[in-house]
């Protein structure tokens, strides 16, 4: 009588299809979830209830009541006689705990024997870290096992709360969104601003890359001379850009003792939509003086990428073969290799073996 939910694809899918499982996804910001409130989200094509109990505990359940499919997020919190908080379905009042187990069916009378504990909705393990809410998506919807590892921890979360948060949805599968995010050659064409760079300002780049946990990094280096935005930080900034599957990219900039962390998280809503969340932390005084300017610039960047995704979709709807080149597309190739290795390691029950090897890549941008 369990509600297993939709089966998540566990076989290796072609580029632009399917999702990684047995891994953490950024689902929301901690501030999005208020005490005593629930909200309906979509994650990997599944409806997910994210809520924070009146005691402040965050939980996640499949947002479909197994009785008549009403969204549990449209219900309310109920305090049981034991003191436990449950979610009450708005349709018939069935109640479920944060573990997904059914706690009560009010329509049952005393002499109707029914083991309600056999009824469950899917529970998603959650974790709060550095102001983010992570949801672990297991390959087996019925699994009650805890995650095999904690969520990632990002360097440079300094200066109190985020100095910038921006979000939008890309009309694209997460694969296309990730590749667009890490593509080093599109900047002069898609992101042409006087304060960033122009199409005419292109130089040959040579950057050192190394493997990192579940991903890779462009190791710490001086920013390119034709990236004018770094000038507002003054001094001699150094930056390291890291990518980690399933879709997290962060740039950690240091200027002496000051730090800037720009974190971009890609969350697959379904096969055709990906939410991009950009968050910036910093203890650098430039974020007090130039915050409106920085916010407008970051917003413009995302919307330019979104416009290009929409344009790209005009070609993708014909399902063309895609051509990957070295060195500019090496990161896109690594992403696909990382995905394949992650899926294989989970399937075979073994440790993940990062396929990325240290190398210097060269391109013009």
What would you note in describing this structure?
By secondary structure, the chain is an alpha+beta fold. It contains five helices and 19 strands. The strands form four sheets. It has an eight-stranded antiparallel beta sheet with strand order 12-18-17-16-15-14-13-19, with helices on one face. The longest helix is centred in the last third of the chain and has 26 residues, at 291-316. The model is unreliable at 4-11 (pLDDT under 50).
The largest sheet has its strands arranged as 12-18-17-16-15-14-13-19
Number of helical elements: 5
Question: Biggest sheet, open or closed, and with what strands and sense?
Answer: 8 strands, antiparallel
| Radius of gyration, whole Å | 23 Å
In round numbers, the mean pLDDT is: 90
Please provide a brief summary of the model.
With 365 residues, the protein is α+β, with helices and mostly antiparallel strands. The chain is built from five helices and 19 strands.
Summary tags:
32% strand; 17% helix; 365 residues; alpha+beta
């Amino acid at each position: 009588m369990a509600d297993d939910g939709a089966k998540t694809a566990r076989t290796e899918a072609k580029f632009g299809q399917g999702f990684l499982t047995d891994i953490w996804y950024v689902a929301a910001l901690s501030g999005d979830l208020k005490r005593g409130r629930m909200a309906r989200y979509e994650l990997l094509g599944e409806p997910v209830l994210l809520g924070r109990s009146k005691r402040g505990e965050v939980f996640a359940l499949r947002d479909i009541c197994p009785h008549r499919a009403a969204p549990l997020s449209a219900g309310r919190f109920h305090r049981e006689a034991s003191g436990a908080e449950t979610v009450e379905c708005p349709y018939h009042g069935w109640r479920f705990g944060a573990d997904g187990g059914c706690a009560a069916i009010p329509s049952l009378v005393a002499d109707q024997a029914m083991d309600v504990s056999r009824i469950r909705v899917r529970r998603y393990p959650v974790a709060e870290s550095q102001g983010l809410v992570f949801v672990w998506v297991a390959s087996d919807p019925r699994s009650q096992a805890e995650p095999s590892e904690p969520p990632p921890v990002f360097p440079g979360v300094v200066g109190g709360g985020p100095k910038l948060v921006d979000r939008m949805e890309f009309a694209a599968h997460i694969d296309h969104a990730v590749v667009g995010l890490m593509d080093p050659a599109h900047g002069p064409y898609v992101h042409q601003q006087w304060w960033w760079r122009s199409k005419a300002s292109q130089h040959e780049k040579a950057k050192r890359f190394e493997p990192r946990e579940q991903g890779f990094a462009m190791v710490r280096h001086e920013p390119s001379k034709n990236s004018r935005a770094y000038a507002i930080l003054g001094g001699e900034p150094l930056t390291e850009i890291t990518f980690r599957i399933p879709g997290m990219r962060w740039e950690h900039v240091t200027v002496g003792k000051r730090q800037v962390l720009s974190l971009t998280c890609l969350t697959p809503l379904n096969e055709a939509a990906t939410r991009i969340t950009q968050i910036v932390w910093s203890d650098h005084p430039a974020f007090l003086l130039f915050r409106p300017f920085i916010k407008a610039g970051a917003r413009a960047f995302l919307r330019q990428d979104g416009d290009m995704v929409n344009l790209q979709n005009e070609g993708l709807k014909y399902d063309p073969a895609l051509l990957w080149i070295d060195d500019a597309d090496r990161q896109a190739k690594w992403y696909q290799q990382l995905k394949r290795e992650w899926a294989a390691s989970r399937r075979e029950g073994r440790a993940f073996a990062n396929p990325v090897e240290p190398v210097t890549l060269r391109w013009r941008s």
